[in-house]
Write a structure and sequence with these properties.
Blueprint (H helix, E strand, L loop, with lengths): L3 H26 L8 H14 L3 E3 L2 E3 L3 H11 L1 H18 L9 H23 L13 H26 L10 H8 L1 H18 L1 H43 L3 H12 L7 E7 L5 E8 L2 E8 L2 H13 L4 E3 L7 H4 L8 E9 L2 E10 L7 H30 L11 H14 L5 E8 L2 H8 L1 H16 L7 E6 L2 E7 L3 H17 L2 E5 L5 E5 L3 E8 L6 H16 L7 E5 L2 E4 H6 L6
Parallel strand pairs: 14-15
Antiparallel strand pairs: 1-2, 3-4, 3-8, 4-5, 6-7, 7-8, 9-11, 9-14, 10-11, 12-13, 15-16
Length: 585
C-alpha cells in the first residue's frame, strides 16, 4: 500500500499529465471528424466489452484488448487508440474491485498505458518504413509484430519499476509466465485486428461487431481455462499445506502454521483465530497481520458471542461477506484493521464449535469463486489436523495425569525428579509423602463418590503450597507426594507441619451419597513422612522409599496426624524434635 504522500503525488501527476497527453496527442494525431465517425464509438464499445472478461493468470489480471487497440490505431491513429485503451483499462480496474485506499491505481495505470501507447506508436512509425512487407498487404505484419511486442515489453518493464521503486513491493521476475502468455497474443491479436479492419471496410460498423465475436470467444475460453488452472494450483498448494499441518501434533503450532501460510495461497489482509471459552465468550487468541502473528487474550462481549455462534449453527460451514455493509453490526466493533470482505470458518471438535477463523481483506469481493470452492477443503484439513493434535495432547496428558484430581501421576512425578537431578546434581531434593488418616471411614460412611470429592478438595488445598520448580502428584489411593528442591531438612519439616496443620483445621464439604446426597462436613487428618537428598540418603532411588517408611513407621504406626523423618537410621517426628530439642538423633 502506498503512503498517503505517494498517493497524493500519484493523483497530482495523473490529474495533470493525463489530460495534457490527451490534448497533445489529439492535436498532433487525431484525424479530422473523428468524433463524427460511428466506427470510432463502436471500437470503444467493443474494447469495453472485451474488458468485461478479464483473465486471471497466476495472480495477474490480463485482458485481450490488443486486437481492438491495433485495429483502432491503424484506422484512426494514436489518439483514438489511447481513448479506447483508457476506457477499457478503467472497465477492467472496476472489475478488479479496487478499494478506496487503492484508488490511486486508476491515475497510475491510465497514465502508464498512455505512455506505453505513445512509445509503442513511435517505435511503429520508426520501423514501418524500413521493414519489408513480404505479403504485399496494406499493413506491414512485421511492423505490427514489433509494435505489439514493444507494447507488451514496455508494459512489463514499467510495471516492474513502479512496483519496486515507487510502491516498494516485491514484483517477481520480469520474464515470467504472464509475460510469455502476453507475447503469445501476437499469434491471434494481429490476425483478429486485420480481420476487424477488413470486415469494417466491407460491412462498416456492423463488420466491427461481427469481428468482435471471435475475440470475446477467445477471452471466454482463456478465462475458463485459467480458472480451471487456478483451481488446480490452489488445490496443489492446499494439499502441500495439509501435509505440513498433519505432521504437527501441537495445537498452537498448527494454528500458527495455518495463519502464516494462508497468504501464500489465498488473499487475506488479516486473519483472526478465536476460541470459545467455557463461559461462551469468544476470545481473540491470535491475530495475523502484515506477516506477523500477535498473541492476544482479548475477550469479546457475550452479545457478539451469541451472534457469531448463531451464525455457525444456522448457516453453512463458511460464511462469506462480500462487503462490510453485509456484516452484522457487532462485527464492526471487533475488527482490528480496515476490511470489506470477510470469511468465517468454524473450528469444530466432536460436532461442537470450539472456535473460529475469521479472514478479512480491504477489497470488496476479494475472494473469487475458485477460492471459495477450495477454501473449505483447506479448512477441513485444518479441523482434521486439530482433532488429531487435540487427541494426541489428551493422550499425552492422560499418560502423565491422574484423571480424578488432575495432578501428575507417579510416572510423570518420577520423570520430573530424575530430570531435575540430572540437570542440577548438586542441589538438595526433598520428598513429602502425605497419607490421609482413616480415609476408608469416609468411603464406608458416605460412599466412594464422597471420597472422590474429598480427594479433589485435598488436591486443591495441597496445590496452594506448590511453588516454581516444585511438583505435586497423586501417589495412589489417598496418598499424595510432594517434590521440593533447595530446602534443608529443617525447612522441609516446617513445610510438612504447615501442610498437616492446614489439613487438620480445614472443614471439607461433601455429600452423603448413601442418604439422598445430604451435604455433610468432614474433618480429616494426615500422616506425613519426609526425606531429603543427599542429607539423609545417597541416591534419588532411596529418597521416596525413606519418605514412605518415615510416613508409615514414624507417623501411621505412632498415632497418626504427625510429620516424621529419618535421621541417621532413626525415625523421629516433628513433635519429638520439639519436646526433646537437646537429644541428638
Amino acid at each position: 500500500m502506498l503512503s498517503k504522500k505517494r498517493q497524493f503525488i500519484t493523483w497530482l501527476v495523473g490529474l495533470i499529465m493525463i489530460p495534457l497527453l490527451f490534448f497533445v496527442v489529439f492535436y498532433l494525431t487525431a484525424p479530422a471528424g473523428l468524433f463524427s465517425e460511428p466506427s470510432f464509438y463502436v471500437f470503444i464499445f467493443v474494447g469495453a466489452l472485451v474488458a468485461l472478461f478479464p483473465i486471471e493468470v497466476r495472480g495477474a489480471t490480463l485482458f485481450l484488448i490488443a486486437s481492438v487497440s491495433i485495429s483502432v490505431f491503424l484506422a484512426y491513429g494514436l489518439f483514438a487508440e489511447m481513448v479506447v485503451t483508457t476506457i477499457a483499462t478503467t472497465v477492467v480496474m472496476k472489475q478488479m474491485r479496487i478499494t478506496r485506499e487503492e484508488s490511486y491505481r486508476f491515475p497510475m495505470n491510465i497514465l502508464l498505458f498512455q505512455i506505453i501507447s505513445i512509445l509503442s506508436a513511435e517505435i511503429y512509425y520508426l520501423v514501418n518504413p524500413i521493414l519489408l512487407n513480404p505479403l504485399n498487404y496494406p499493413y506491414n505484419i512485421l511492423s505490427l509484430t514489433v509494435y505489439l511486442v514493444a507494447s507488451i515489453t514496455l508494459n512489463r518493464l514499467f510495471l516492474y519499476v513502479l512496483a519496486t521503486e515507487w510502491q516498494k513491493k516485491v514484483y517477481g521476475k520480469i520474464i515470467n509466465f504472464e509475460y510469455i502468455f502476453s507475447l503469445f497474443s501476437v499469434f491471434y491479436a494481429i490476425p483478429i485486428a486485420l480481420m476487424i479492419l477488413h470486415l469494417r471496410n466491407i460491412y462498416s460498423t456492423f463488420g466491427i461487431i461481427i469481428a468482435a465475436f471471435p475475440l470475446i470467444g477467445i477471452s471466454i475460453i482463456f478465462k475458463l481455462y485459467f480458472s480451471s488452472d487456478s483451481q488446480n494450483r490452489y488445490l496443489y498448494k492446499v494439499n502441500g499445506l495439509a501435509i505440513k499441518l498433519n505432521e504437527q501434533q501441537n495445537v498452537k503450532k498448527i494454528i500458527e502454521l495455518y495463519l502464516s501460510s494462508w497468504n501464500n495461497i489465498f488473499p487475506g489482509d488479516t486473519i483472526y483465530y478465536c476460541v470459545i471459552r467455557e463461559d461462551q465468550k469468544i476470545e481473540k487468541s491470535m491475530v495475523y497481520h502484515n506477516g506477523h502473528i500477535v498473541e492476544s487474550k482479548e475477550s469479546l462481549d457475550p452479545i457478539s458471542s451469541h451472534v457469531i455462534l448463531e451464525e455457525y449453527w444456522f448457516e453453512s460451514d463458511m460464511i462469506v461477506y462480500k462487503s462490510s455493509e453485509e456484516w452484522p453490526e457487532i462485527i464492526h466493533s471487533v475488527i482490528d484493521y480496515p476490511a470489506e470482505s470477510m470469511l468465517i470458518f468454524p473450528i469444530k471438535r466432536a460436532e461442537s464449535v470450539i472456535g473460529f477463523i475469521g479472514i478479512t481483506d480491504p477489497k470488496r469481493k476479494a475472494f473469487s469463486k475458485n477460492m471459495l470452492f477450495v477454501m473449505p477443503v483447506l479448512h477441513n484439513f485444518l479441523n482434521n489436523a486439530l482433532a488429531n493434535a487435540y487427541n494426541f495432547e489428551e493422550l499425552k496428558i492422560n499418560s502423565r495425569t491422574d484423571h480424578l484430581t488432575g495432578l501428575s501421576n507417579l510416572r510423570a512425578f518420577e520423570q520430573n525428579i530424575n530430570k531435575y537431578n540430572q540437570t542440577r546434581p548438586d542441589n538438595r531434593i526433598s520428598i513429602i509423602i502425605i497419607d490421609l488418616d482413616y480415609f476408608k471411614d469416609v468411603n464406608d460412611s458416605f460412599g466412594h463418590q464422597a471420597g472422590n470429592e474429598l480427594l479433589k478438595q485435598i488436591s486443591i488445598l495441597l496445590s496452594t503450597f506448590v511453588y516454581e520448580q516444585e511438583k505435586l502428584a497423586r501417589y495412589g489411593g489417598e496418598e499424595f507426594i510432594f517434590f521440593v528442591p533447595n530446602k534443608t531438612p529443617d525447612e522441609i519439616i516446617e513445610l510438612a507441619e504447615s501442610i498437616r496443620e492446614k489439613i487438620e483445621k480445614t472443614a471439607f464439604n461433601t455429600h452423603n451419597y448413601l442418604d439422598d446426597r445430604e451435604l455433610v462436613t468432614v474433618n480429616i487428618t494426615a500422616s506425613i513422612g519426609v526425606a531429603t537428598y543427599p542429607d539423609q540418603c545417597s541416591s534419588i532411588k532411596e529418597l521416596m522409599m525413606l519418605a514412605d517408611r518415615a510416613m508409615y513407621v514414624g507417623s501411621k504406626q505412632n498415632g497418626r496426624n504427625k510429620v516424621a523423618t529419618i535421621n541417621e537410621g532413626d525415625i523421629i517426628n516433628e513433635r519429638q524434635a520439639i519436646l526433646e530439642p537437646d537429644k541428638t538423633y
